[in-house]
Design a protein that fits this description.
The complex is a heterodimer of chains A (511) and B (431). In chain A, 35% of the residues lie in helices and 21% in strands. With 431 residues, chain B is mainly alpha-helical. The chains are: A alpha/beta (511), B mainly alpha (431). Chain B: It is found in: Cell membrane.
Chain lengths: 511, 431
Amino acid sequence: MANDHIDLVVQSGEIHSLLGENGAGKSTLMNVLYGLYEPSDGEILIDDVPVRFSGPADAMAAGIGMVHQHFMLVPVFTVAENVALGAESTTFGGVLNLEETRKKIREISAKFGFDVDPDALVEDLPVGVQQRVEIIKALVRNSKILILDEPTAVLTPQETDELMDIMAQLKAGGTSIVFISHKLREVKAVSDTITVIRRGKVVGSAAPSASTTELAALMVGRAVNLTLDKAPANPGEVTFKVSNLTVMNDAGQRLLDDVTLSVAQGEILAVAGVQGNGQSELTEAVLGLQKHVLGSITLGGTELVGKSVRQILDSGVGFVPEDRQDDGLVGEFSIAENLVLDLYKHEPYSRRGTMDRAVVAKNAVDKVAEYDVRAQSSQDAADTLSGGNQQKVVLARELSRPLKLFIASQPTRGVDVGSIEFLHKRIVAERDAGTPVVIVSTELDEVLELADRIAVLFAGRLMGIVPGKSSRALLGLMMAGLPAAEAQEQMDNQAKEANGTDNSNGTGVQP
Amino acid sequence: MSITAKSAPSAHVDAVAIRSWKVPILLGVLALFAVVVFVVLGPTGTATFRISQDNDAWQVPDLVLPSKAMGIIVSVICAALAYLAYSQTRATGKIAKWVLMTFTIVFVVGLMVWMIGGTTSQNITLVGLFTGAMLITTPLVFGSLSGVLSERAGVVNIAIEGQLLAGAFTAALVSSITHNAFAGLFAAAVAGVLVSAMLALFSIKYVVNQIIVGVVLNVLVSGLTGFLFEKIMKTKVDGVTIYNQPAQLPGIPIPLLSEIPIIGPMLFRQSLIGYFMLILVVALWFGLFRTRWGLRVRAVGEHPKAADTVGINVNRTRVMNVLAGGAVAGVGGAYFTLVAVSSFSKDMTGGLGFIALAALIFGRWNPIGAALAALLFGVAGNLQSILSLAGTPIDGQFLAMLPYALTILAVSGFVGKAMAPAADGEPYVKE
């Protein structure tokens, strides 16, 4: 059961946040409200009138609009075609009249200061603008209630601020907004009311004035330590070097452009940036998974470019891929098998070409206990585990052999808060054991939590490397494409103008 | 409010590092082929292209070309274009479109002159080439339009062959029994719908792999029509196979238009089915790209979930389109037995349904593109039969292979990236 007798009341003209961990049932609830799923019990009332939705069309007719976490836009259609779809204006005989739609898009654009060209192809637009197209889609249909499902997941901090401005404008115009998020800071900043959901149940509501620790405890169900206790780094010798690394796709586009960085033993370098700015290409190039690579990657003086994936792994690279279900695990295999996925051919797991199942099973029992993997049995299929437990299996495997380099991509995406704590501790422990660590994350909170130094990528280029305690505002500017020096200059100018007043969204300390 | 979202990853194309030499090498090899085959081993004498038929109102004089001289001209132009492609690749990594287009046209002209010049008669009737091609092109167009309809909505239609065959058989049977060609035509459409109803049922309702369902349907229809052909159509009453004597659809020449050289006999001396084809190609193009129906169908084929979230019934749209496709292919099948030949024979569609699939891909899922691709395949197929009749020195089996070689080139994406609808072949199941 994804939702269990949830009661939710949204007042008109308010921003009502739904706070909950990944998998708590927030999206399920909203999909019920939007007519995508049918509730088995309970009812929906709009202005005290019960309504029944048999599909999204009914929900839209009742004035509910939704911006999905994964945008529901056809990439090869223009903005106007996407907005028109399902609510087309037509002339005689069903012939499309897109001019009508374009006019409406321009009106809404002007009203809210969106800069959206009705004739642009959606696939050419940056995600921030695509999100605005989604909002326009809802507004064109006269939505009175707008559901935003994890809208900030794909945005830079600045874009997030802009989205919050838009939400405030909509609210002022009388639209009710349901804001779904697991990010405490954003929920506090924008909400009028907060409802917390855990395991499909409403566990309480809170005022936006509640502290983040209170909200986190409510969300997780126990007190959590939000800040990681981590000793200052003690960097040793620099053993991992990337110089002038360029990665191209088959068409010759530079997905990673002349990136140079290095990581010392006992240090965590976090790579920050909005998704799709070259992070995947960077990690895949190190692993030998990219075809067109220029430049050099050395580990302990050995060149990795041109080596096979097997050779690179054997030289002591541990890798946690960003998509654990596709690249990190074989879902149908058992936990035990997944734990030796890269070691199966070595002693003691196999001898003379035959796997020793007893040793594999013993290893699994040990690892499951050590990493606190919540499973019925270590012989269960990996895809029966929750996201957090799957990630523990991946981490347990990658950290089970002596490493010279550890790379983790999105180590805690879709993982519950309890597991995040554990995974972060393990990563820091690996650093303290003297391994160079590279973390790639699009979650700024995670980057700030773990990093000793932060590298920011934008459009495949390195915007600079800044200390681990840099401010969100600075990182945000870099994530939007400003080189470190320029971003710092802009920050200094703003600070001068404001004459010492604290930056609105800066929680970190300026370097 | 300021917009800071910088234009997203402005990945700039760096042509210096990655270049594909495939095209210049291929052009070079073809140019060399032209020199050796068209000139050195080429025929002497002339090649005559006859444009008008004897009874045409407007007589256009024959085109007589000296084979050797044409071979030399073609070789020189091809070599020059191959060099141009090489230097363009070296400079920018990109070859201008016109270079490829011109090369193709010039090479095909050279090929034709060489082949015609090499036959014993040394002449060819272009009207015959193109009007004869329509015998292959017409069912191909209907088949590929059936594919356009279902694949634009996201259902892969491998069952075109079966739909054509079912249409051909049913048209023959019903037309024989009723002595009414129109009844046969209607029945053929129904038969096509029945085949596609099975495709829709299994691939959409029961989410069976669409390619497997399609292949199985083809085998099923082939077996079923073969069986009924043996059991019913071969039955003789008073020495006549009365169930395989379909009444034919008459040709309806359009005044004036039918007198235009080549195009007239090709397009305006057709039967009802032929004119229906012309209308359907244009109507389907307009429908897909200019109407609400088309926008919704394309959305369902590209991103079914997005379509669902704006209130479009994805699976109903898919079923309707697959059924409509079946009707179209059924009519195409009727062409075999109501227009092209006067009786049904076992497996008479001879794999044209698969060539139609190739035409669909070659034409990039666009009705007009698919029709032009079907025309190309039709001409290539007919050229082969004309050449073997005219006594070409090239082996007949080798010539018969050419349309299929062309098909492989077309389907393997040689003509550029084939852009299938993004959700083509993927069933839509709500969680």
